[in-house]
Specification:
heterotetramer; A mainly alpha; B alpha+beta; C alpha+beta; D alpha/beta; A: mainly alpha; two-stranded antiparallel sheet; 13 helices; D: alpha/beta; 9 strands; flat
Chain lengths: 411, 397, 215, 218
């Protein structure tokens, strides 16, 4: 324990010091309780500041300032009352208060029990995903061998909650939207999992901490061995990104609450705190998925270079997580929305075949691991070809009939 | 909403009316399960105002679509019959509230045709400058709203609004109000732009193509945009002509009819500009029509600024008060940003018009909305409606 | 190749994002209460009545209650009631004045037709737009005392236009005085020969009539 | 494009049974129009659309016009020879006759194929009360669909064989036709705080004697 630098051990030391203050039987309980509270606190704040970061980043994309009006409360603990509005950083707390105080309307025709349970289930299951993510070298909530299996099992329940919300609202629009949401989530569950399977095949384990350790080496101290820098890893990462966007109902795939057609989709009949819960669950799901993406493809808490090891590992994890979420926000600010049939066609006809091909590619990668010297280049070339050529061919087949046009002018 | 039965009609209607669209509109209820009737509007985020579409859905596909109007009906024509000719001019701003200058021009043109009023050269040039600036405003607005219907979170709309606001600031510093300009009079214009205004306008027009390039680079090649709009809402040229569609919607189907070239009103024959024509008549072509027309408008504006003559902006004999045109009638029309905007006036010699009729391009362009939407999904119907470009002030009058 | 269009789009928004930090043309936000945009000179909102002197705006209204604007106003939102007695105006001539002059701003659409048709330049367009009112009825009916504002205020909000209007009014007043002087001189000249019928020829012909005032 | 007279002659030649009159437009715009009789309107319209020389394939504008009954007093001057041999006296007799009103529909037709200008045709109903049906031209030009519905809605002209004749602007339960000259607006009185002019009269009619009239004129 002592070989690890102090900052790395600090959170663990703090917890252990606190746990052994308590009598015996309670120790096991408080040990895990502190982990749960820590995750909730960190990722609750992370959710709060993601919402304001999203609005400010979108604002900047659109040549305007984001929110900067929410004031600092009068009785603030700051030594003197700040005239400055802290660039809008107090906005999420203002939103939270607004969400709490807004009236929670339940339509009379609604199925009360289901209507109430839907947000509870969706938040519960989307939080369960955090249990297996290795935030730091020593900071891993639960050391599961089948961590990935657990993660996808927990993530799959959110679809049930969305359909419960759509069905129980007894509203034409939300029913239509719930069916759309189901079609989308199910058809993107497959590419999501298939893009992760090559990693399991290469590392041979399902446990996330082992996967992060497998990415721990650097050639010449500079080039990290993250999986994203291998051909099959890069393809897997791209498919994972697209599927993660669809799983968390984000930008090009935010069909369920497509405002332009179905108002707020399955959330039409929710207001007040329940709506805020759905909103929070969506962000938790997004954070969990990007956390998984960072762990599997971007080397989790590994530092990018050997000499940067002194920075505590959980900061690397948080940095990469923020980077991925910024990318999601950037995509949301730019891209249009896909229609439901295009969306499902993209998944079944394009992503799933590519993911399967990527599986074969990873298998070849493992079998050709022992090739010496110049053969490595051949190995890389073959691996690249196996993924790029089908991508181009299938890309052209999916966009047949679409293309830029030239226009004539009247004589 | 009784669905019209087809049997009683003679062949012409069937030949032109109901036969078009991607799938023949045969409503076979028995084995398609129950149809879901969804009413979109009048409070709906994407129907550009108080406009309702009663769509009958078979799953996601539209089987029947009935537009419902009248929520914003103020009976503008009855009001016009009770006010003087000049008194109706500010009301024309409220017809198509996105393009007040072109509506003013159409009304002024009709009244000048009715009373045989002459217009000095400088005023004609100013009208062309204001008309083309309004075309830029309207087309950038439309393209922004179209992308909002396609699902982007406001980014293209705010880029379009950034450019539109610059032009509206020019209108405000000239006529006093951003959108309700009330700028044209019978026989000329009301305010003579100062050299500073002309310099600012010329600078804006010179770097407007930079905004268009940014837009095209960002969106025209976008694969999702191509997938969502190409082949959606296809419009057959023959049906478009028979249904009286005009403006970019018609030219997107390849029909060469631009009133600036056909009638040659104002000083348009002096300007050389081209009229873009589409080939497929789908939503993508309608979007590209607007982008290409904006580029042509920039060319017209540059020529207009170059040789803007000096001289009076108002015909000295024009009378502001006590304007009584001789009995008679006149139909004046212009190529508005949305299509052919016409004013049909009947005068009986009194200061109030006897009959004042506005030919609303937005309303008539909606005639084939049902044919275009059949067979498409509900998401497409919103995009098709967005590409037709309607403003409810003009639809309902 | 699939995806290039999307990447180009992402690059454009990225450029806008970085641009918003250093390129003022791209950052268009004006934080309203703190920063205010400068209103152009021609900006118009609700009308106001021009009065000659600033200290007694109600008393020295330029308006002579001719009710032309009441007739010409498209939505008929001006209410005028002519006064019974007369009052000297700026040029000293006895003129009526509006006992009641109110504009119903809930109906007025600030189309400035009243300004165009007013022959006495007595009604002009104001530039005040922060006029939220609590009572929907009486607060929105601007009566004469809230409408009357001084000519100096008019110079303040519409500098060029006010200067041009004053120039025109001064010129008209000068012509009116000359005509009055000429008429007085002609009347005096006509009266003198009638009064003293002395055999001497009438004094030199009265001063040649000044050229008819320019139209 | 041929002049309106040539078109009329070809129409009469082609359809001898149809009555086609020329309606002159006194104003400077000089857009004269053809008055077609209702019975043959449909066939004439198809001819105008399909004739190779005209090809009027685009109906730009459909307008309803209301001509109420008019009292025409025409002054006839008769010269009465003076029995006493003086110069004849001119006696004016005023005869008033009642010109029956009618509801009229004006169609502005253009050709997109040959790009030539408006040919204006008018259809008039027999009278303004019971015989108010005219043949719909929507089967010929689909453009007339919504505009004829608007004329039906605002003027009350019933278009026979129109595919979907419903009210387009007013709500379906609305009874009267607002654009007619003799339309009296419903007296759905609302308290007007700042009533003046015509509204003030209606105001007085509804409120009890002046004691309660609100001080509209401060």
């Amino acid at each position: 324990m002592s070989a690890v630098p102090f900052l790395e051990r600090a959170p663990i030391e703090l917890r252990d010091w606190f746990v052994q203050l308590l009598p015996g039987p309670l120790q096991w309980l408080t040990h895990h309780l502190i982990t749960v509270v820590a995750i909730l606190a960190v990722f609750g704040l992370f959710f709060a500041f993601t919402t304001v970061a999203e609005r400010k980043l979108l604002g900047r994309l659109q040549n305007r300032l984001g929110p900067n009006r929410a004031g600092v409360p009068k009785f603030s603990i700051l030594p003197w009352h700040l005239r400055h509005k802290l660039w809008g950083l107090t906005q999420p707390f203002a939103d939270a208060v607004k969400a709490l105080t807004k009236e929670d309307i339940v339509p009379t025709a609604a199925d009360k029990v289901l209507h109430f349970l839907a947000p509870v289930i969706i938040v519960g299951f989307s939080l369960m995903g955090f249990a297996v993510l290795p935030f730091g070298r020593l900071l891993i909530p639960v050391e599961l061998d089948a961590a990935l299996l657990y993660f996808f099992a927990a993530g799959a329940a959110t679809e049930l909650a969305i359909f419960m919300a759509g069905w129980s609202s007894h509203n034409k629009y939300s029913l239509l939207a719930a069916m759309r949401a189901l079609a989308q989530l199910i058809s993107y569950e497959l590419p999501l999992i298939l893009s992760v399977v090559p990693i399991i095949l290469v590392t041979g384990t399902l446990s996330t901490s082992a996967i992060v350790h497998a990415q721990g080496f650097w050639t010449f101290g500079l080039l990290p061995h993250w999986f994203v820098f291998t051909p099959w890893g890069a393809a897997g990462f791209v498919i994972f990104l697209v599927a993660a966007l669809a799983e968390s109902n984000r930008s090009p795939f935010d069909l369920p609450e497509a405002e332009s057609e179905l108002i707020a989709g399955h959330l039409t009949e929710y207001s007040g705190f329940k709506y805020a819960l759905f909103f929070m669950a969506e962000y938790f799901g997004l954070t969990a998925l990007s956390g998984l993406g960072v762990t599997l493809f971007l080397g989790g808490w590994q530092a990018p270079c050997a000499f940067l090891e002194f920075i505590p590992s959980y900061l690397w994890f948080m940095g990469k997580l923020v980077g991925m979420i910024m990318f999601f926000i950037w995509v949301r600010g730019t891209l249009l929305r896909l229609r439901i049939d295009q969306l499902t066609r993209l998944s079944w006809k394009f992503l799933v075949p590519l993911a399967l091909l990527n599986l074969g590619n990873a298998a070849f990668w493992v079998l050709s691991a022992h090739w010496a010297g110049p053969l490595q280049l051949v190995r890389w070339a073959v691996s690249l070809a196996v993924i790029v050529i089908p991508f181009v061919v299938m890309g052209r087949s999916i966009t047949t009939g679409y293309g830029p046009r030239s226009y004539r002018y009247a004589p | 909403m009784s669905c019209s039965d087809q049997t009683g009609l003679d062949a012409e209607l069937l030949a032109f009316g109901r036969q078009s669209g991607p799938t023949v509109r045969a409503v076979h209820d028995q084995f398609h399960g129950d149809l879901l009737e969804v009413s979109m509007g009048p409070q709906h985020p994407s129907t550009h105002g108080v406009f309702r579409m009663v769509a009958t859905l078979d799953g996601e596909q539209i089987v029947k679509l009935k537009p419902v109007f009248g929520y914003l009906h103020r009976n503008h024509e009855k009001i016009a019959e009770n006010t003087t000719y000049l008194g109706s001019m500010p009301y024309t701003d409220r017809l198509d509230y996105l393009c007040s200058m072109t509506t003013n021009w159409a009304y002024a043109l009709a009244v000048e045709k009715l009373s045989g009023q002459a217009v000095p050269d400088r005023a004609q040039y100013l009208r062309i400058i204001m008309g083309e600036l309004t075309r830029l405003v309207n087309h950038s607005c439309l393209v922004g709203f179209l992308f909002n219907d396609l699902g982007t979170s406001f980014t293209p709309l705010l880029y379009a609004f950034r450019e539109r606001e610059k032009i509206l600031d020019l209108f405000e510093s000239l006529s006093g109000s951003r959108m309700m300009c009330n700028y044209q009079r019978f026989g000329g214009c009301r305010v003579d732009p100062s050299p500073a205004w002309l310099a600012a306008a010329r600078a804006l027009v010179d770097n407007f193509p930079r905004f268009l390039d940014e837009y095209e680079r960002m969106l025209t090649g976008n694969e999702i945009m191509l997938a969502r709009t190409q082949g959606v809402g296809r419009l057959d040229p023959a049906h478009a002509v028979n249904a009286g569609l005009t403006g970019p919607v018609l030219r997107a189907s390849g029909v060469d009819y631009d009133i600036r070239k056909v009638d040659g009103y104002g000083f348009y024959p002096r300007f050389d500009f081209r009229v873009p024509l589409g080939a497929h008549g789908d939503t993508y072509d309608r979007y590209m029509m607007r982008i290409l027309e904006m580029r042509e408008s920039v060319k017209i504006l540059q020529q207009a600024f170059k040789d803007l003559p000096a001289g009076p902006i108002m015909d000295p004999k024009a009378k502001i008060r006590g304007f009584r045109p001789k009995p008679g009638e006149a139909y004046g029309r212009i190529e508005g940003p949305k299509g052919e905007l016409g004013f049909y006036l009947i005068s009986d010699g009194s200061p109030n018009p006897y009959r004042y009729r506005v030919r609303p391009p937005s309303l008539i362009n909606l005639t084939l909305l049902e044919e275009m939407c059949l067979g498409h999904t509900i998401a497409d119907s919103v995009v098709i409606l967005g590409s037709i470009d309607i403003v409810l002030g003009e639809v309902d009058r | 190749m699939l995806g290039t269009g999307i990447l180009k789009g992402l690059l454009v928004t990225a450029k806008n994002f970085t641009g918003s930090y250093h390129d003022p043309k791209r950052m268009v936000t004006v934080e309203y209460p703190e920063q205010k945009t400068v209103l152009p000179e021609n900006y118009r909102n609700f009308p106001f009545l021009v009065s000659e002197s600033a200290d007694d705006p109600m008393g020295t209204l330029r308006c002579v209650a001719c009710q032309i604007c009441e007739k010409e106003c498209p939505p008929q939102c001006i209410i005028i009631e002519k006064s019974k007695d007369k009052k000297p105006d700026a040029a000293g001539k006895q003129q009526f004045y509006p006992a009641i002059f109110s504009i119903d701003t809930s109906v007025c659409m600030s189309c400035q037709i009243c300004v165009e048709v007013c022959p006495f330049d007595s009604i002009k367009m104001d530039k005040v737009f922060e006029i939220a009112a609590t009572d929907r009825f009486q607060d929105l009916l601007l009566t004469r005392d809230r409408l009357a504002k001084s000519n100096s205020y008019y110079h303040q909000i519409h500098p060029e236009e006010a200067a041009e209007v004053d120039g025109r009014l001064a010129a008209e007043r000068k012509i009116a005085e000359e005509k009055a002087k000429a008429a007085a001189a002609a009347k005096a000249a006509a009266a003198k020969p009638a009064a003293s019928v002395n055999p001497a020829s009438a004094p030199a012909a009265p001063a040649p009539k000044t050229p008819p005032p320019a139209a | 494009m041929e002049t309106i007279e040539q078109i009329r002659d070809r129409l009469v030649a082609r359809f001898p049974a149809a009555r086609v009159e020329l309606v002159t437009n006194p104003g400077p715009a000089a857009e004269h129009s053809l008055l077609l009789d209702a019975a043959h309107a449909h066939d004439l319209a198809v001819f105008l659309r399909d004739d190779p020389a005209l090809r009027l394939d685009y109906c730009s504008n459909v307008t309803g016009v209301d001509w109420p009954d008019k009292e025409i007093t025409d002054v006839t001057k008769t010269t009465v020879p003076d029995p006493a041999g003086g110069q004849p006296k001119i006696v004016e007799q005023k005869t008033t006759r009642l010109q029956p009103g009618c509801l009229e529909v004006v169609y502005h037709l253009y050709s997109m194929a040959l790009k030539h200008g408006p040919v204006i045709i008018r259809l008039r109903t027999a009278n303004r009360s019971d015989q108010v049906t005219l043949p719909s031209l929507t089967p010929v030009w689909r453009a007339c669909d919504f505009q004829e519905r608007e004329v039906y809605d605002l003027y009350g002209i019933v278009f026979s064989r129109h595919p979907d004749l419903r009210r387009i602007l007013m709500w379906d339960e609305f009874k009267d036709h607002p654009m007619r000259k003799d339309y009296v607006e419903p007296d759905d009185y609302e308290w007007e705080p700042t009533a003046h002019g015509a509204v003030a009269e209606k105001h007085k009619a509804h409120l009890p004697p002046p004691a309660a009239t609100p001080e509209a004129k401060p």
